[in-house]
Amino acid sequence: MNRGVCEIVDSNQTHRKTCHRLNIPYQAHELTFSCFHNQPFLSSKRTCDWLVESINATRQKLEFSLWGNVIMPDHVHLLIYPRRQGYSISEILKRIKTPVAMRSIGYLKKNNPAGLARLATGQGYRAFRFWQKGGGYDRNIKEIDTLLESIHYIHNNPVRKGLAENPEQWYYSSALEWQEPGKGPLRIDRSDWPVFV
Fold first, then answer.
1. Pair 121, 127: CB distance under 8 Å
2. Longest dimension (CA), the chain
3. Which residues, other chains included, contact 6 with Cβ-Cβ below 8 Å and sequence gap of 6+?
4. Which residues contact 55 (CB under 8 A, 6 or more apart)?
5. Residue 33's CB: how many other CB atoms inside 10 A?
6. Measured between alpha carbons, how far is 150 from 19 in angstroms, rounded to an integer?
7. Nearest residue to 26 (alpha-carbon basis) of 84, 75, 103, 69
8. Neighbours of 180 (CB within 10 A)
9. Which of 59, 67, 134, 159 has the highest CB neighbour count under 10 A?
10. Chain centroid to CA 143
């Protein structure tokens, strides 16, 4: 079993705790990560499309299946299934998040320098941050009931937040893709759903 340590920090920097990532073969992962200070950086189609590109590139390179997703204005939920026995959730997240942050910061520097203030950290070497510091949320899933609950939770996020009347109305979600393949921005991998039950 591979373990990675991640530090979770709340936006007010009032407490820190350590979590352990469990990179266990044949288990799915429910992942959640947020924008810096929970700001709605994922409100624009351009930024969401960059994230879609990054998820697709990373899943091809690091070989994981995507079973569920929703891109909300200020955070992201992914349900993934690593196909390699040896994998690192920390590496998967880094490869997904880094290109989006770099493109966003580069875009703002060129097209909207004043907008960079929303990403300012006040720290020297990392003056700007797109994603919230810390590891986010990572839950291993090995039971079918938990897997189905996770999909339901992910798909209903826009409804709970009042952004859609039903899950299929939210474009950046796998809800419609599960019903009508090819309709959503991210293809769902059905071939290995679920192999760990």
1. yes
2. 51
3. 18, 19, 21, 90, 134, 135, 136, 138
4. 66, 69, 78, 96, 186
5. 18
6. 20
7. 84
8. 9
9. 67
10. 21
Write out the two tokens for 54.
């990054």
Number of Cα atoms under 13 Å in the Cβ half of residue 68: 24
Asked whether residue 124 carries a pLDDT value surpassing 80, the answer given is no
Question: Can you say whether the dihedral through the CA atoms of 120, 57, 148, 137 is positive or negative?
Answer: negative
Give pLDDT tens digits for 173-195. 999 999 999 999 999 998 888 75
Give the per-residue pLDDT at 10.
Answer: 36
Angstrom distance (rounded) from CA 92 to CA 55: 9
Three-state DSSP state, 72: coil
pTM value is 0.86
Structure tokens belonging to residue 107: 């875009």
Rounded to whole angstroms, the Cα distance separating 28 from 148 reads 12
Residue 196 has what pLDDT? 52
Report the CATH number of the 26-179 domain: 3.30.70.1290
